[in-house]
Amino acid sequence: MYDIRIEPFGETFDCGEDETILAAALRNRRYLRYGCKHGGCGTCKVQVLDGDVEITASNFALPPAERDAGTILVCQSYPVEDCILDVGAMNLDEDEFRRGDATTSRAMTVESVTALTHDIRRLVLRHTPDGSLPFVAGQFVNVTVPGTTAQRSYSMANGSADIDRIELICKVLPGGLFSGWLTDTAAPGDPVEVSGPFGALAVRLSHRDLVMVAGGSGLAPLLSMLIDLSRKGCERPISLFFGARTAADLYVTEEIAALAADLPLTFVPVVQLPDANWAGATGLVTDALAAARESWSSSDAYLCGPPGMIDAARDLLVARGVRPQNVYFDAFVSTGETAGV
């Protein structure tokens, strides 16, 4: 066992050699902010003031510069000696910390499952009469796979004003536990357990333009943001780049076009393998991003999609003038997949 001291609260708890610091905190009935629990969201970043940890799994949400500066993700970090951690970046007050994990699960029911493409489904879950799940556009929930204790993380795709339901965009993975339930079993009225919301991805107040880049099912949180921005009468110019392998892999394009009628939104769908009927942008989504402007210095960036796409888009946008601290992202890392930074 190692001692983990948490500052600025000055409290110490024990952590086993084969236990993550997050798991130890929760076992000791103390709360540290967390989200996906697999290193993809960055919610559980803290600073190591003393000691050392071993990181053995996905750590995608931690850029090398932050890791070199002593930042870790407690959901992926195992102590190798006593540690002192500063959790100030979590904006956690002492009452929250000492209260323990107050995250609760909510019972919901399946309203519908709709195929958007051959491997993308929209899952609508409705709240029971005695519960709701307020969220900020950009956040995600953990859904327990019915009949198991396994959980999967999905971002809300609807606006936060929808207090009666959440809408999730789910990629169907061959042999996937949740995918199998979604495609073979799920039916209207089926009960589902959901916990959250989690994650810190949200539109920041700013005078700058917004550039959004999505790939695959990563469109979900950006769609939720656009719906909320439309409802609030946003006047900031927005550029949305949505990359897909083929034109048949694009989805909700009509919904985005409808949002563009109320927003200063430029929508650029990008197809990697176009057919003869495709007249839009081609190549990787970052190719279209690079071709659109020489400078994005007047923009904040929001990125959601596969780790490789986020790496490439982040590097490109920073090289084209976006300040690194104004690049916000949520990587979609499949459970069991290890994403490299």
H/E element string?
EEHEEHEEEHEEEEEHEEHEHEEHEHE
Seen as an oligomer or otherwise, the chain set is single chain
Largest sheet: 6 strands, antiparallel
Give Rg in angstroms.
20 Å
- Helix percent reads 10-25%
Sequence of strands across the biggest β-sheet? 11-10-13-8-9-12
| Spatial shape | globular
Distance between the termini: 30 Å
Quote the average pLDDT.
90
Q: Ranges with pLDDT <50 over ≥5 residues? A: 336-341
Write down how many β-strands occur, each being a DSSP E stretch of 2 or more residues: 19
Q: In terms of structural class, how would the helical and strand content be classed? A: alpha/beta
Strand fraction? 25-35%
What is the number of helical segments per DSSP (H or I, 4+ residues)? 8
Structural notes for this entry:
The chain is an alpha/beta fold and 341 residues long. 20% of the residues lie in helices and 32% in strands. Strands 11-10-13-8-9-12 form a six-stranded antiparallel sheet. Residues 336-341 have low confidence and may be disordered.
Salient structural properties:
six-stranded parallel beta sheet, alpha/beta, 19 strands
Architecture blueprint of SSEs:
Elements: E1 2-7, E2 11-15, H1 21-27, E3 45-50, E4 53-55, H2 64-68, E5 71-73, E6 77-79, E7 83-86, H3 94-99, E8 105-115, E9 120-127, E10 140-144, E11 151-155, E12 165-171, H4 177-184, E13 191-198, E14 209-215, H5 219-231, E15 238-244, H6 253-260, E16 265-271, E17 281-282, H7 285-292, E18 299-305, H8 307-319, E19 327-331
Parallel strand pairs: 1-7, 14-15, 14-18, 15-16, 16-17, 18-19
Antiparallel strand pairs: 1-2, 3-5, 3-7, 4-6, 8-9, 8-13, 9-12, 10-11, 10-13
Helix pairs in contact: 7-8
